[in-house]
Each structure stands twice: as structure tokens, then as C-alpha cells.
Amino acid sequence: MANPSLKACFDRKKFVVAPGIFDMISAKVADGMGFDCLYVTGFGTVASGLGLPDAGIATYTDMISRIGRFAQMSRTPVIADADTGYGGLLNVRHTVMGYEAAGVSGIQLEDQEVPKKCGHTPGRRVIPAEEMVLKIKVAAEARRDPNFLIVARTDARTGLGLEEAIRRGRMYGEAGADIVFIESPESEAEMVAIGKAITDKPLLANNVEGGRTPILSKARLEEIGYGIAIYPAVGFLAAAAALERAYSHLKTAGDSNGLPASESYGFGRICELMGFPEVWDFERRWAQPAAKE
């Protein structure tokens, strides 16, 4: 079942900040920090799980077990990337039902052609808006829980321009999407225009460090009409940089002595995060006496 607290945030117009999660360590760290929502990044999940680019290679089967685990192990509501729904209308129906059954609180569907590409990379092409409208209607019909949210993303801005992207955003909201996501506007002025044009649905801002869209403050996003900001890459970019620093030190020094404490989460702390204290308590309570010779 979807976590009703996420829909409640939007119902009372509370701005939502959602960090990107990509593996269970990132999920457990973020889950303990009091966010209203966690965002399962397709880029990061495919990269960490398969070691491949987010270019339409991963399938529903590749993703569903990992996404379900994120939802199962997190107290915080989870919105998960589902690319194009992994195919046609029947695939979209199956994907929505699967994500909802897995415990996800929101699903993101986009209007790219198959195979899709990462939203801040070049060469993206979109299907006709009318085809995406049908996908959204199917998704809305397929869900069982009204707290399960549908995020409709259009990638039309890069290839077809801002006006077409806004037109599609309106159409997708009218078709049943709960949140409208216009991918990769290229200036603050464009984001302001989107906020003025679409006022009946929460707008999603995709904040990618080094991406095509300027990263605005939470206060500014609220001011211009956005309702949620996702930061899909912030976690895996930081993790990759930290790993590179640690491995570089090991390669140069030949051991981990001298690695700054700030570069390490700490073994005791990671044991606690992963739940070892509960395991150790269980073992103490159920300890068996040593067998006699």
C-alpha cells in the first residue's frame, strides 16, 4: 500500500524535497533523516545494480525487485522512476500494478520513445502526446489505492521547445496525472513560465548537479509554483567521489592508515545502520549453552 503521508503533503501544499536513492545504503541513510519522500533514481539504480547507462537497457524485471526492496525497508514514502512504463499500454498497466503492490507511493512515467534516455542527455525523442495521454489514463485506471500518485514527465522541451512541453504537461494533468514533471527547462525564466502556465497540479523540479536546468533554492521554487524538488544524482555523485578518494589513498599509501576520519562513515556506525544491534540482541537472548565433550 502507498504511504498516505506523501499525498497529504501535496493536499496541504507542503513543498517536498526528495533525495535520490540508488542502493540500500543510500536508502537507509536517507530514510533516517526526516525527508517527506525518497526518489528512486533510474540512472543511479541502473548504474549501481547493473553497471550500465540509463539508456532503456534495464527492464521491468530488472527494476521491480530493487524498487520493492527500497519501499519495504523505508518508512519514508518512495516515488520510483518507471521510464516509459516498459512498453505499451498493457506494459504500463502491469508496471503500475507491480509498483503499487511493491509498496511504492508514486510512479514516474515519461513520454519518450523506446528505448528511453536519461533526461539530461542529448538525443531524446518523444512519442505523440495523445499516446502518452492514453498511458496516463491506463495508469490511473490500474491503480487501486488513491494515495498512489502518478508523476507524468515530458521530455519534449529539448527537442520540441518549451511551448510544446507546457502543452503536454497540461494534457497529462488533465488525463489523470497527480504531479506534472516538465524535464530539463534550460533557464529560470523557463521555469517561471512553466509555473505560470500549470497551476492546477504540483510541479516537479529535477535538480541534477551539472545538468541542463538551473538549481534554484527551495524558497524560489515554491515562489514560482513548484511543489516538489528531486535531487536524483546528489547521492551517487557524492558516493562515487568519496570512493575515488578512498581508493586513491589506498592505492597510493598501500593501506588505509591516514585516511581522514571525515572520509569514513565508521564501521560501528554502519553496523548500527544495517541493524546489527538487533541481531546481536537476538543472539544474546537465544544463546545456546556450549555442548559438552
From TrEMBL:
Pfam families: PEP_mutase. SUPFAM superfamilies: Phosphoenolpyruvate/pyruvate domain. Gene3D superfamilies: Phosphoenolpyruvate-binding domains. The keyword Lyase applies. One of its GO terms (molecular function) is lyase activity. Keywords: Lyase. The keyword Lyase applies. This is Isocitrate lyase/PEP mutase family protein. The lineage of its organism: Bacteria, Pseudomonadati, Pseudomonadota, Alphaproteobacteria, Acetobacterales.
